[in-house]
Recover the amino acids of this structure.
């Protein structure tokens, strides 16, 4: 019996001539193509050998091989549909860059470019020259330099100006960011000794003044962008801290985290401190992220007084923390939008989603509801509260809408997450919900089709 089953296994030469297998071969590299076919046949061989497979058709083998090849053709880092209602979702890649920025990245990385070449002089150039003047124009800073993320920016500044010295920080500002990375640990890695002042909820200017010693190298302020302390509170403003620094001839630094370049207060949201305001306060150095509320690629942006930025450019650690051509190619178009705020809120996806009229989300949800119902899915329209996310504007939500799908929420969440395309929804009040705040209109039909497939799979069980 086993010999007969082994003889019935299709030959590799025959498999690679099948039209659907030929089409798959065009989407996959040769190694994974041959490996996938081998795995598919070997699965049946082992099953026959162990007695777990006692009957099959050639079509079964071809189907399984096709599934293996389709999975192998997919990259590990892949697109998902964000139906969580969180705009800047850390686990889902944070900010989306604009189409213009994406196009520029593609053009730059698929050809040679002037990354470190001065076209005017024909000499070696600096990668930071492509972006520094633009950053200064947008923020009002004297000078700027970049690292690969904001934690790196903070570490670089501390390493240059506070290594083997002390940096004074309010106890209420010792934040922990994603992945259990903590400011005290970053400071330790940079060779800086942390000096805590004040209490968790209240810190006064005198706390800084009384903590200053000959070992003090820096006064550091950290914006608590991923949590907030409410009630009986007091913090030292950046303007007050800058004044204390000038009085004592000590460098001052502010880590703004999210990198806000527009006043959200003008648009009816909670006001977040902007980079421009921090510079105007008199702080010597400010650091912030490129891929949060700024709406660009991952980057750590350092702005401030020219004498200090010039020193950072000479720090050997910058070589290890520098940005790539892809980052620069995505960041430049993004920052250019900020030269006219009207363009920024219209063209930068993150800002556009955060500031859009909730009516738009309702329209998308109603359309998705209609499509799902046409496909036989039992759903209802629900009000939601979308989050801005990305360790920014803690507690601030935006009115949004979504659809709740009837069924076991845990099973639905799993099916939508594991299926192709991957759709990441959320479970609220024991219901599986697809929030449309961060969904594109073009994704609605895709989601509806996927939901119909999930429903059919459930009914077939």
């Amino acid at each position: 019996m086993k010999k007969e089953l082994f003889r019935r296994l299709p030959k590799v030469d025959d498999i690679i001539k099948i039209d659907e297998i030929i089409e798959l071969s065009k989407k996959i590299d040769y190694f994974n193509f041959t490996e996938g076919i081998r795995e598919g046949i070997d699965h049946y061989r082992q099953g026959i050998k162990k007695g777990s497979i006692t009957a099959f058709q050639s079509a079964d083998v071809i189907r399984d091989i096709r599934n293996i090849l389709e999975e192998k053709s997919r990259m590990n880092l892949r697109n998902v549909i964000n139906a969580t209602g969180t705009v800047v979702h850390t686990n889902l890649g944070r900010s989306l860059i604009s189409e213009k920025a994406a196009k520029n990245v593609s053009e730059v990385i698929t050809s040679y470019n002037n990354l470190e070449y001065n076209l005017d002089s024909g000499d070696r150039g600096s990668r930071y020259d492509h972006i520094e003047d633009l950053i200064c124009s947008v923020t009002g800073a004297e000078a700027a330099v970049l690292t690969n993320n904001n934690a790196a920016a903070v570490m670089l500044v501390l390493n240059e100006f506070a290594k083997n010295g002390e940096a004074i920080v309010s106890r209420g500002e010792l934040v922990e960011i994603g992945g259990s990375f903590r400011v005290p640990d970053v400071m330790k890695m940079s060779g800086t000794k942390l000096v805590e002042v004040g209490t968790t909820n209240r810190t006064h200017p005198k706390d800084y003044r009384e903590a200053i010693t000959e070992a003090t190298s820096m006064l550091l302020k950290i914006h608590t962008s991923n949590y907030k302390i409410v009630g009986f509170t007091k913090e030292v403003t950046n303007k007050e801290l800058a004044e204390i620094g000038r009085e004592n001839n000590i460098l001052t630094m502010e880590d703004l985290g999210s990198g806000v370049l527009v006043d959200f207060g003008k648009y009816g949201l909670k006001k977040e401190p902007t980079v421009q305001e921090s510079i105007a306060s008199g702080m010597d150095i400010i650091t912030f992220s490129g891929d949060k509320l700024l709406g660009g690629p991952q980057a750590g942006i350092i702005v401030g007084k020219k004498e200090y930025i010039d020193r950072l450019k000479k720090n050997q650690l910058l070589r290890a923390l520098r940005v790539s051509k892809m980052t620069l190619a995505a960041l430049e178009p993004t920052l250019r939008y900020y030269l006219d705020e009207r363009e920024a809120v219209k063209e930068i996806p993150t800002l556009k989603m955060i500031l859009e009229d909730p009516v738009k989300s309702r329209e998308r949800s109603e359309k998705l509801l209609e499509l799902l119902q046409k496909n036989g899915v039992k759903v209802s329209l629900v009000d939601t509260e979308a989050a801005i996310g990305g360790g920014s504007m803690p507690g601030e939500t935006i009115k949004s809408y979504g659809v709740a799908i009837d069924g076991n929420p845990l099973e639905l969440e799993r099916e939508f997450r594991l299926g192709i395309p991957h759709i990441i929804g959320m479970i609220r009040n024991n219901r599986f919900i697809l929030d449309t705040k961060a969904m594109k209109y073009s994704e609605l039909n895709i989601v509806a089709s996927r939901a119909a497939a999930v429903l059919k799979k459930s009914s077939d069980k």
In short: The two ends are 31 Å apart (CA to CA). The mean pLDDT is 92. Residues 2-73 form one domain.
